[in-house]
Amino acid sequence: MKCENCSKKECSKKQKNDDTQSTSVDALRSDDGSEEKNEFDTLANAKILLSDCLACDSCMTLEEGARVFQQNQKEFFRILNLNKKCDTSKHKVLAVSICPQSLPYFAAKFNLSVNEAAKRLCGFLKSLGVHYVFDTTIAADFSILESQREFVQRYQRRNQEEHALPMFASACPGWIRYAERVLTNLVTSHICTAKSPQQIMGSLVKGYFARQQNLSPDKIFHVVVAPCYDKKLEALREDFYTALYNSPEVDCVLTSGEIVQIMEQKNVSMKDVTEVAVDSLFDDLKERDVVRHDGKRSDGYLEHIFKHAAKELFGMDVKEITYKALKNKDFQEVTLEKDGETVLRFAAAYGFRNIQNMVLKLKKGKFLYHFVEVLACPGGCLNGKGQAQTEDGKPDRALLAQMEEVYAAIPVRLPETNLHVQKMYQDWLEGMDSKKVQDTLHTTYSAVNQTTSSLDIKW
Fold first, then answer.
1. 115, pLDDT greater than 50
2. Exposed, middle or buried, 177 (CB in 10 Å: 0-12/13-18/19+)?
3. Which domains does the chain have, with CATH numbers?
4. Cβ 253 vs Cβ 283: under 8 Å
């Protein structure tokens, strides 16, 4: 689609045509000659393709574009090099959090088990100078639990509040950006207020972990490894920033593909890296085997919320969910029937074509769903544009199929069974219904700078 702002401002997103282009981080390199050469200099200037950024209005402002480009390998290595110097005032504790949808990419690409991939990726990052490597699954636990509770509350007040239902998932930043900039408050008022796993992980690292380590949040440099470029934009949101400490929850996002670029520049093979156990947020514990949530290609918000709502609202235990594909495999629905009546109707809408159809139905008053798991990428998070892409920017379907097999084989852990999460609700967040839970695990979404009517979008 084309944004009206593109005629006024330089577009930072490559148009979908045959003229593949790349943008180098050299564009942000200082010309004053003051930058010191170091062992990471070549790596820091590796080119980053933003050609598949899903920024949903098809362009970014110049300021946003500049800030996104600062989230690259160069910034990562700038911190690593500062840490090598003796000036302790500039020293940062470097923590990297890895999204569970990134691990199948490394496992499939390097022909490893997912547990081997996690440990070798941890080993590689620590060989560069990273202090802690975390798994973001615990952050997804919090996000899912808060989303479940919010859906039940919205359902219970559906007859009193016009915008209580439907509820839309909030974990995908491409979808959120599109909703806020294009779809207006007609849609944003329906978005779940629970933060995404990435940003909850930011709160855990800069809040809980910082306190445990007796560190000021601004002394931690927090990097997230994610499947897509839109996670960079998400990290820049003003509501995910702690003004008191002049510190964002997430300082830098690197895609899975960018990590592989670093390996290639270093001439390092994943198979040659020493395995190191992934760190835990709790004392000196280490993570055990990789686990995931329900859901074939994502964190499984639909499945978890559906089962929770069935139990809480209707006293029904749902063990298995049956998906019904509608117009295509990326638009599927799930229903719950009781006494011959459909009491819950959920949908999964992946990709912008399905999102557009969903929104048009909402505008026409023909929307039947209580909840929709919305993801900008066709195929879900595993198909994020920061991984599993061929050199010409197209999906690597063979690799993606392997990734789906790897992901499906990972054991599922219900967020309700995570004892660390339950303890943190009480000890750190002051109870499940506290103001601190709202401040730490939730945010708000609203229309901003509408650039074009959703009815004028060309697909």
1. yes
2. buried
3. 54-138+197-272 (3.40.50.1780), 144-195+293-441 (3.40.950.10)
4. no
Q: What is the pLDDT of residue 60?
A: 57
User: DSSP class of residue 332?
Assistant: E
**What is the structure's pLDDT at 276?**
96
User: 120 vs 44, which has greater pLDDT?
Assistant: 120
d(Cα 406, Cα 421) in Å, to the nearest integer?
26
Note the helical H segments in 365-418: 397-409
pLDDT top residue among 184 and 190: 190
Distance CA(385)–CA(394), nearest Å, equals: 9
CA end-to-end span of the chain, whole Å? Answer: 6
> Torsion-angle region of residue 267: left (phi > 0), alpha (psi -120 to 50) or beta?
left
Structure tokens at 235: 């990290």
Rounding to the nearest 10 degrees, give the CA dihedral for residues 112, 114, 120, 126.
160
**Which is more confident, 50 or 166?**
166
Write down the pTM of the prediction: 0.86
Rounded-to-integer distance, Cα 288 and Cα 257, Å: 25
